[in-house]
Amino acid sequence: MTKKKEPKKSQKAKSEKKSALTEWQKRNIEFLKKKEAEKAEKKKRQEKLRLERKPKATDTDTEAEKVEEKTLSAEEKKKAKEAKKEEARKAKEAKKLQKLEAKKEKTPLQKAIHHALPVIITSAVILLISIFLVTPFSKKKIITVTGTSTVSQEEVIRDSGIKPSNYPFLLIFHHSTYEKNIISKNKMVKSAKFTYRFPNKLNIDIKEYSIIAYAQTDDGYQPILENGTRIGLVGASELPESFLTINLSSEKDIQKLVKAFSKLDRDLVNQIQIVSSADSATTSDLLKLEMHDGNVVRVPLSELAKKLPYYLKIKDSLPENSIVDMEVGIYATSESIEASVAADKEKAKNENKEESESDSKSDEENSQTESSEEATATESSEAEGVENQAPEATNEEHPNETAVVEQVAQQ
Where is the composition biased (Basic residues) (predicted)? Predict the structure, then answer.
C-alpha cells in the first residue's frame, strides 16, 4: 500500500509545483525546450550531411568540412551565450516578480495594522496635544518685534492686545485681529505681520509711516506723517537738524499738501523750509513756500504739483531773496517792488478818499443852501397867508362894530 501511494504523492507535489509556477516561468521552460529541440535537429542534419558525402573525398573537402564545422560551432557558441544572457535576465525578472507578489500578499496581522494605523496616529497626536496643553509650557511664548524705529516693542505688544494667558496657537490662528489692533491703536504703524517659529516663538514685523514734516503749535511741534495725520508733540531735542514746517490749520489742506508732495521730486521737497497760508483775497488756497535758499514761492495748493517743478528751472537765474508768484502765470518780483506797488496803491486809495470826501462836502453845502432857500420860501408864503386871513378874522370877531361903521358912513 505504501509503495503504491508514494508515486501518487510525488505526482501531487509535481502538480503543486507546476501550479506554483508563474506564467513567465512556464513560458521560459517552453522556450528552453524549443532550444533543445533545435539543437537536436541541427545535430541530425550535420550527421546526414556527413553520411551523404563520398568516402573518397579529397583533402580540400575535408578542410572545407572542418572550416564549416568551426564556423557552425562558433555560431552555436554565440547563440548559446545569448541564450544564457537571456535566461539570466529572465531569471532576474522572475525573482523581482516573486518579490513583488510576496509584498502584495500581506498577512492578516499586517492588514489589520495597516487599517488601524491612521486611528493610532490621530489618537497619538491628540494625546500629545492634550498633554502639552495641560503643562505650563503651553502658555509660554517668546514675542519679538522687528522693523520699528520710533515705536517701542512694549507699545506694539500692548496695542496688539496679547495677554500672558493666551496660547501660542490661538495667536497663530487669529493673527489678523491682533494685527488690526496694532494698526488702529498706533498711528505710526503702517502694517503689522505675525510670523510663527516652532515651538513658541512669535515675531511681529512692523512697517512705520515716515515723518515728512512738523506742524508748529503754541505747545511745540507735531510730526506730520506721510498719510497726512498728526501725532503727539515732540520735544526740541527730538527734532532733526533740518525739517519741513507746515503751518496750516485745516487737516484736509494738510492731506492735500502731503499728496501733492508725494508726486514731486524728493530733492525739490527738501528745498522747502516752511509752508504757510498766503491769505489771498482772490485765491483761497494760495500757499506761501519759504525756501532754504531765501526765496519765497506763492503757488495755489490745487496747482502745486503742476507749477512748483518750474522753480528748479528758474531759481539759478533769480537774484537773492526773490519772490516767485505762481498765482496767475509765473513771474518773479521782490519785496521792495511789492512795497512800492503797495505804496502807490495806498496813495491812489487816499486820493480817491479825498476826492470822494470833497465831493461829499460840496454835495452837503449844496443841499444846505437848497434847504435854506426852501425854508425862506415857505416862511414868506406863510406870512402872506396870515395877512390875508387877518381882516376876515376881525370881521368875524366884531360883527357889531363893523355894522356901526357902515351906518355912520351912510349918514
Answer: 1-12
